[in-house]
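Appendix B. Extra example for self-study. Work through it before the problem class; the solution is given directly after the inputs so you can check yourself.
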Amino acid sequence: MVMTDTAAGLRESRKNSIKLLRNERFGRGLVMACGLFIILLTLSVAAFLVVQGTGTFTKYHHSILEFLFSADWAPTDSVTEGSGKVGAAIYIVGSLLTCGLALVFITPFSLGAAIFMTEISPRAGSKLLQPAVEIFVGIPSVVYGWTGLTILVPLIRDVFHAKMGGYSVLAASIVLAVMMFPTITTVAADAIRSVSQEYRDAAYGLGSTRWQVIYRVVVPAAAPGIFTGIILGLARAFGEALAVAMVIGKTRAFPAGLLSPTNNLTAAIAADMGNSANGGEQNLALWTMALLLFLISMLFILLIHIISRKGKQAA
Amino acid sequence: MKKSLLSRSKRANAVNSLMTGVFFSVGGFFLLLLIVFAGYILVKGALDFYPELLQFNRHGIGNQLFNTLYLVFLALVISVPIGVAAGIYMAEYAGDSKLTAFLRVSIESLSSLPSIVVGLFGYLVFILMTGAKWNLMAGALAVSILSLPLITTTTEDALRSLPIGYAEGSMALGATHWRTITKVLLPACFPRIITGVILAAGRGFGEAAALLYTAGQSTNINWANWNLASPTCPLNPFRPGETLALHIWGMRTEGSLNPNSSAIANFSAAVLVLLVLGFSLLARVLTRRYQKRTEGR
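Solution. Structure tokens for the complete assembly:
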């Protein structure tokens, strides 16, 4: 009686462990499949971009140099002939110029805000500025664009008497700058916070003022993290489409100055994609622009990796 | 010599005070900017309010609001299971292999994809290749591509930040790894994952560029029609569904068609900002409660 009980119990428990083992295998397989799915998804996005984006060069035989450096943009919307021009230089310059200007505008402010909330007044930083920065992150880009359109554009028109009614490189750069602000500030503040307290103590012990500690010790020590923040902000600005499209004026010409309108990569894609024939010259040229955006964002990732590796080596 | 040292120290102190002032004004400036900015959006939206805006038809923004919520809901239904599972894999199973490194690069690439590029990909794959018209499901798939990396990394971080004792205790009692994950680790870091999901939702609400050519820029809902296969049924995921963010974008260009376009856009912007703020507030409250609980108070 006792014997059979034990035997049954053993059988039962073996069954149970087999079931558990099967669950273990199943669970492991399931989560691994999801991981593989992400890889597959990324590869397929990249593959579609490459296949569609290189069509301009392979199917319609335009040269890469023409695409990058010619300002002659007149692609045909036809699927068979490739007799148009696909020079995207205006869009490329528009993207570079607006993002570059935005970076110049906002970096000092973002750094200042990051230093304020970490070194000067951590209390006010965590109670007021940190939540404020988080709110800035959350505001949708269309709302940034809409606010730029209703405040900034009329303001620039009235103050500077801009020709195109305020739609300008300046307006686009300011909108982008405000959008970059939370990214740079958050990452830079994290970097500054992680600078070892001993560095500060040592510098204060040598008689430095707080400002001297900040710009001689803390900022150089946090430099890799600060650069990472700047690149992340730049990446966000480069990929931003609609907010810029609302205020840049969408004019196919090189800007004559800060106050003149132009166009950029993302706004051009957003505006023209819907009314281009799939696989046509114009359509594929827009895909090439998307591919360029993708390559730029990969370049930014690469830069961040290089910086963080350098930072680790230094530390 | 002594005098010059003294003057140097004086100068250093003066510069220090000056820079402290500069930092305070930068901090103050951004606080003020946010208050003015958010205040402008909300006040402007409130001032331009008229009752028809609340209607669920062509004149109001009710349909757009519903589309926004429904689309983000669909996107989360798709991306949360996959993202959480991938996060579990990254934190618990993935070894130090080439595959893991590649998965990490993939997640990073996905999270830095410009949303207009995701929109293009979605347009080609979910609309042109399936031969469908603009639909909510295509938009939801595009948004889930954007939220997937966020949910994956949040889950991974949440699992990694748990004390090792949780897993050790469970395994010492004879639990398998998978049972430890589902019965111990996931429940323990559930609030953090939820916070990540809420943040992803907040981003989804504001997404527009990825939806331009996927969810479409029109909406037509018949609230009396509950036949799921009908293109005007509110719950049919395969109907065109303009969201609030797209509506704001649309009002910019179609201004001439609608005399109230700027009022509609202003009010939509205010509603959208309130929606996003509400969700980020929720995430904050949850995080705080979770911290309190883990600190044992």
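Self-check: The radius of gyration of chain A is 27 Å. If your reasoning did not lead you there, revisit section 3.
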